[in-house]
Amino acid sequence: MLESIKITRRQSEIRQKLANLSGKEKPTEDETKEMDALDKEYQTNEVRFRAALVAENTERRAAGAELETRTDRQFADLVAGFEMRQVALHLDEGRALTGQTAEVVQELRNQGGYRGTPVPLMALEQRAGETIAAGTPDPMQTRPIIDRLFPASVAAQMGAQMIQIGSGAVEWPVTTSAVSAGWADGETANVAGPTAYATTDRALKPEHNLGIHMRITRKTLLQSGEALEAAIRRDMNGTMAAELDKAIFLGTGANGQPLGVIPGAATYGITSTAVDALASWAAIRAAVVRFMTANTATGPSGIKALIRPELWSFLDDAEAFTGTGITEWERLVKNIGAPVQTSNALATPAGTPLATQALLTTNAGGVAPIFVGIWGAVDLIRDPYSDAQSGGLRLTALTTADVTVARGSQLQLLTGLELAA
Q: Rounded distance, CA 309 to CA 279, Å?
């Protein structure tokens, strides 16, 4: 209770007692002393009341400033207490959502319509104590919402920007005009131009739906308890991370998939170079030079490479200069840093001789090389019929995503990097 409220109540009690004592025609000596004491206390409380109001006014202003400057961090703190276990039991038994989980679900429902129970993307991140191949991320670190979902994903490491979209489509206008400067040839001559300024729109559209299907047996529901929440989150996070990574780079653009970077190289205007020779740092260096001549990079340090583990094995075993012990891998790492290695986002080496691919990206002028849009939250839906006889639970998690490339000049694709003579 505020101190000013306590003082106000005490003043009211003092006034009531003084009214009773002052109504007596012949007060006793003790009653007279009590009236003096109450009067002094009343005057002291008046001073205390004014001081309390000043202090509380400062606290109110500080609290108001905090409320006015709130950001997504407050929502992230709320989501930190979101329990997937409650969602599973709600869908299975109809148990009511409580606490922070209920608040988050209500907030998501107010922002958009969902057939099932909405689950925030941040709730699928790894919590403390749950390990993944790349280590244990800190779930309380503030990041963009999609990056928090996959902090160790290949797409994030390659500089892809994850965009959270409420509804509709999002477009980025990219300059495509060839405006050039020219000197006036003489005192009265005109300068070059005019040249039309043109842009091309790169759109993200909600046309590709990714679904994750899970079966939870009755034994698991009764036996796992709170561990069920961590298990569901791990399964959904791992499956979604792997499939989104694969779609971003290898999506066919058919059968419901978005058009990935590598199959859509021609569509996105990405330069694709067929090396068709033994893999080496020299082949990758040529692509780095193309980045620099196109003004998308000022040096090799700002370029990221995506390769298969098989390419790492070959380069680490290939001696660059006979008798020196310096490998092609050492030359590569010395210039552009350690590449990102994946067996999911690049196709398996094939052909005779065996050959693989490599993708190079760079961030030019603060513009990410790849944009990945995700619409809304994960929509978690229960199937109450398929496993009704066994008492099990089937869950389907749906999310909508799309991929686009703003400027193809920020990516280079190398094909035909041979791993054997």
A: 13
